[in-house]
Amino acid sequence: MIGLDAGTYGGAVAAYALRFVGLRYLQSEELTSDGIDCSTLTSQSHWAGALEVIPFRAEAQRTAEYAFVVRDTADALPGDVFVQHQDSASSPGGRHNHVGMMVGWVGGEPTLLEASERVGVRIINARSFELNGGIRRFLADPCGLMPRTAVARAALAMAGGVPKFGRFGMRQYLGSACNRVPHRATDIYVASGSKVYAPFDGRAEHAVIDPDGAQGVRVIANGRTCELGHVEPTALGSVRRGQVVGRVLCPAPLVDILYSPAYSDPTHLHFAVGCSARPSVRAIHCDGLWWSEPLAMCREGIIGVPVDQESVRGAFADEFA
Ligand SMILES: [Zn+2]
Question: Which of 231, 58, 45 is nearest to 134 (CA)?
Fold first, then answer.
């Protein structure tokens, strides 16, 4: 029995991570039920468990500038990422770092979950993990309780409907495996026809949204642009936060192949927020704008949630149940 506090962010991350116990090791950029690799385990658990922003690759988890550095194993908390090598180059193959995640304590001993290349996903004593790359914390508020505001709860509920491929910052396939771009939006899986709301006051216009040419709505306000892709516009011109601006459309067949086969229905809202000034939440600089993690902006209350939370499917959360 692992001691963890499911009432905290870290506890929620750990509780989610424990679903992966017993899976074999499989290096993959996709979350499948066949197996999982070390950094997918840590990043996926953070995403679905606590809606925190964490890079996808082990070495990027080590170098992330916004991660908090934990100095000692004795200070580690559930959700913290343990990094095995000083950097990728000093790993045995010289290419990939290796990470494990703190999930709690067994008999008072800090305990990790790791996807080991040889054994698959296993639980180990944290002190037996070769720790040369340090400990990183991606929890904004590790001791805080789960979010209470309606907006934060809605953003958290939506996270369960976002597969790894549709996430912010994830490299995305564009028809060919050789041509990948970072996805500067978050895809939120909802039923076709779901209402889409303006996340802030602004001017709504019909838009063809890059990179895949999706039909949609763009809402513009001083220094901020919100792209709502795969949407049929229903209101254009001046709009208020919370006003319905369109309905979600089933995307073009091309999109179907971009996502995990687990998602037979590819219908989703492509939700991107670009700012002229660097925002307080994690962002990618692209085409002259800072594209920020949109669900984090919802959580912080900076913008509103663009879809009705009731319309979000919970299928993803059940995948490993
Ligand atoms: Zn998208």
Answer: 58
CA–CA gap between residue 61 and residue 54 (Å, rounded): 7
| CA neighbours closer than 13 Å in the CB half-sphere of residue 94 | 0
**How do strand 24-25 and strand 35-36 relate by DSSP bridges?**
parallel
In the reported structure, the alpha carbon of residue 90 is separated from the centroid of ligand 1 by a whole-number distance in angstroms of: 35
Q: Show Cβ contacts of residue 273 under 8 Å, excluding neighbours closer than 6 positions.
A: 199, 224, 225, 226, 227, 291, 292, 294, 297, 303
DSSP string, 134-154: EEEE--SSTTSBSP-SHHHHH
> Would you kindly state where each structural domain of the chain is located, as residue ranges?
9-137, 150-318
Q: How far is the CA of 273 from the centre of ligand 1 (A)?
A: 12
Token output for 2 = 């692992």
pLDDT at 66: 66
CA 272 to centroid of ligand 1, rounded, Å: 8
Alpha-carbon span 206 to 63, nearest angstrom: 39
* Count of CA atoms in the C-beta half-sphere (13 A) of 139: 28
Q: How confident is the model at residue 260 (pLDDT cuts 50, 70, 90)?
A: very low
CATH architecture for residues 9-137: Alpha-Beta Complex (3.90)
pLDDT at 287 over 70: yes
pTM over 0.85? The answer is no
What spacing in Å lies between the alpha carbon of 184 and ligand 1's midpoint? 8
pLDDT of 213 > 70? The answer is yes
Q: Say which residues have a Cβ less than 8 Å from residue 193's Cβ, sequence separation at least 6.
A: 247, 248
The span from the CA of 37 to the CA of 34, in Å, is 11
- The domain made up of 150-318 has a fold known as Glucose Permease (Domain IIA) (2.70.70)
